[in-house]
UniProtKB/TrEMBL annotation:
It comes from Galdieria partita. Gene3D superfamilies: YVTN repeat-like/Quinoprotein amine dehydrogenase. Pfam families: DUF2415 (PF10313), WD40 (PF00400). SMART domains: WD40. SUPFAM superfamilies: WD40 repeat-like. Residues 249-286 form the DUF2415 domain. It comes from the Eukaryota. This is DUF2415 domain-containing protein.
């Protein structure tokens, strides 16, 4: 499989693999929900395995249990101080990493939690949660005398939402769901719906904003990623998966590089392949086969390092790490590795 596409097609090279750590294999609990790899630093990633959230140091080749949950997580979010994990039957746990004390541990409803997001907005830390109860929850995490998760609102949604992403300026929340729509909420105006648009007839399962907020992307189960110019919401690109037959080509996770000057976006297929896309020229994409065998390799998610110089991909065969050619991307209009 991997030799076939390389023999026929010649792709630009934005990233080169430098590490494969086989002892860390993220566990996928729900076949559609595959945002299960998050970055801590340029050499550390966080993943789910069974009931645990693990920190993996790729330079030292060490996997460390960060926290053992009481349920198998379907989604999680993490920053330098806080971990939030959602699971089946409305299960949610939010805790402070330094001492393990909890903001919340229990159930929100009785349906699977699809996406949880911890994010900083100005001087407050927010947590967003969406689930199959057709609801969008927003909380503020407070660390004064006690740890509190203060509810800012619970809003009924027109469909089951699968993923959310907050714009870089903290004003707009992008959400996607089973109806194939994206919905944009104004966080500063009591979550007023700014706009919505049906991208696909299939469920949309992942979304992301570019670092400068100029673009947003939606990944759909219809084998495509849709790229929009955020100010006008004009569709500027449709990016297709390599595998267009059956479930393997479903696009599951899309993310932009956090370093805006690199103008790179990456997305995963259900199995076997990831794509890196040059936002300056959408015709230039790097296709990477993930794995070392011809059998299907499930992909659990991907993430860029905070500086944008590395890309990490979690799969059923371990974690793959790639160097991004940042010097070439900064120096030339269409820079690639040689």
């Amino acid at each position: 499989m991997s030799e076939g596409y390389e023999d026929i097609y010649h792709f630009p090279k934005f990233a080169a693999q430098y590490c494969h750590y086989k002892l860390a294999t993220p566990t996928i609990q729900h076949w559609q929900l595959r945002d299960l790899v998050h970055c801590g630093s340029s050499e550390e990633v966080y993943i789910t395995e069974g009931y645990g959230i693990y920190k993996v140091n790729l330079r030292k080749q060490v996997k460390t249990l960060l926290h053992q949950l009481e349920f198998k997580p379907t989604c999680f979010s993490i920053d330098e101080r806080t971990l939030a994990a959602g699971g089946p039957n409305g299960k949610l746990k939010v805790l402070r990493l330094e001492d393990g004390r909890t903001f919340f541990a229990g159930n929100l409803g009785n349906q699977v939690n699809n996406s949880v997001l911890i994010t900083q907005r100005r001087n407050e830390k927010l947590l967003f949660l969406v689930n199959n109860s057709r609801s969008l929850h927003c909380f503020r995490l407070e660390e004064e005398c006690t740890l509190e998760m203060v509810g800012l609102g619970c809003f009924e949604t027109p469909t089951c939402l699968n993923h959310v992403s907050l714009s870089p300026d903290g004003r707009l929340l992008l959400a996607v769901g089973d109806s194939g729509e994206y919905i944009i909420y104004n966080v500063e105006e009591d979550f007023r719906v700014v706009s919505s648009f049906r991208v696909s007839l299939e469920p949309a399962v992942s979304c992301s904003w570019s670092a400068n907020g100029q673009y947003f992307a939606v990944a759909s189960q219809d084998d495509r990623v849709y790229l929009f110019q955020s100010e006008t919401e004009k569709l500027v690109g449709r990016l297709s998966s390599w595998q267009s037959n059956g479930f393997r080509g479903a696009c599951r996770c899309v993310k932009f590089s956090p370093c805006g000057v690199l103008d790179l976006m990456a997305f995963t297929e259900h199995a076997n392949f990831i794509h890196l896309v040059d936002i300056r020229d959408l015709s230039r994409t790097q296709l990477e086969f993930v794995g070392e065998t011809e059998r299907d390799i499930d992909i659990a998610g991907l993430c860029f390092s905070p500086q944008g110089d590395k890309l990490f991909v979690g799969s059923s065969q371990g974690i793959y790490a790639y160097h991004i050619g940042t010097a070439q991307r900064r120096s030339f209009g269409k820079g690639e590795l040689t």
